[in-house]
Amino acid sequence: MPTSIPKQDSAKADSTIIPPTMSNNSYQAKKRFGQNFLVDGNSIHRIIRAVNPQIGEHLLEIGPGLGALTTHLVDSGCQLDVVEIDRDLAATLNNTYIGKPNFQLHLIDALKVDYAAFVKDKQKLRVIGNLPYNISTPLLFHLLAYKTFIHDMHFMLQKEVVDRLASPEGHKTYGRLSVMVQYHCHVEPLFVVAPSAFRPAPKVESAIVRLRPKERATPVSDPVFFAQIVNNCFQQRRKTLRNGLKIILKELPADCLSEIDLGRRPETFSVEEFIRLANHLSKYRNTSRTSKH
Ligand code: SAM
């Protein structure tokens, strides 16, 4: 029976672990797939400890690559589905994990996956990935649409993106990504990973973040409208709310925002304030639509 990864002090872990599929060092990383493979054992063990996969859990890894994380996930005994776009890597991965009943590979674009289809017996998924940085933002938005099927997500992203995800209002890193992700999830930045932990080394620092989907006591009444408001407001982040909402306000009664200071900049609005703003405007929107009919 496979066992879970032992709790290991990162200082004791091997400093460099070449994943089994990479041992001949012959694989040429493809830039178009954002391939920067983890080769630092300390970082790999730290990530696995943070995820702490358990027998009986259902994990889904996005972009297993050469298997740096995959090997540990398979060995933990969890049920593991992996989604990989690169045909060459998929063939190698299948050869490596052949005969492992808890491993299943899907050769598909992670941006096109119906994540709900992986759910069995209503068990929520734990999603993990050292994500290709070129698609990380659209992928995060795609995954948020499946948040009710997801227990948690652990991702390696550019540190700058993790800063934006976790940013409170009023900071220069606060923007559309912060509001939308914090609306849907608890965001917990975990630790930074240096470029030297990868091969080839990326130009920027990376960081691990944990996202846990939230159940909101007061959800937005119209999620599409909420996203539109946040998007419009941050298109010109230095401008006031009045400017950001110009197009939306055109269709609404002039006094609909009389209690809100339209001279404030969007970056000063907390997520809760955006929710209240969207729900408030939705009411007027529905009324003006009904009265037009
Ligand atoms: N997990 C490995 C590691 O940590 O060494 C590889 C990480 S590498 C940064 C990103 C991985 O995502 C690569 O294996 C790449 O082929 C894969 N990938 C890139 N775009 C993808 C997509 N749209 N769908 C699925 N996998 C993708």
Overall form: elongated
* End-to-end separation: 65 Å
CATH architecture assignment name of the largest domain: 3-Layer(aba) Sandwich
Query: Order of strands across the biggest sheet?
Result: 4-3-2-5-6-9-7
The share of residues in helices is 25-40%
Q: What portion of residues belong to β-strands?
A: 15-25%
Cofactors, ions and other ligands in the entry: S-adenosylmethionine
Low-confidence residue ranges = 1-18
Q: Please, what is the CATH homologous superfamily of the largest domain? A: Vaccinia Virus protein VP39
What's the number of domains?
Answer: 2
Work out the number of β strands: 9
Count up the helices. Answer: 10
Note the topology:
Blueprint: E1 37-38, H1 41-51, E2 58-62, H2 70-76, E3 79-84, H3 87-96, E4 103-107, E5 125-130, H4 136-144, E6 150-158, H5 159-166, H6 176-184, E7 185-193, E8 198-199, E9 206-213, H7 223-235, H8 241-244, H9 246-250, H10 271-292
Parallel strand pairs: 2-3, 2-5, 3-4, 5-6
Antiparallel strand pairs: 1-8, 6-9, 7-9
Helix pairs in contact: 4-6, 6-10, 7-10
The structure holds S-adenosylmethionine (SAM).
Please provide a written account of the structure:
With 293 residues, the chain is α/β, with parallel strands linked by helices. It is built from 10 helices and 9 strands. The protein folds into 2 domains: 31-213, Rossmann fold; 223-291, rRNA adenine dimethylase, C-terminal domain (Helicase, Ruva Protein, domain 3, Orthogonal Bundle). 36% of the residues are buried. It is elongated and about 65 Å long. The protein binds S-adenosylmethionine. S-adenosylmethionine binds next to strand 1 and strand 3. S-adenosylmethionine is lined by residues 33-38, 62-66, 68-69, 83-86, 89, 109-111, 130, 132, 135.
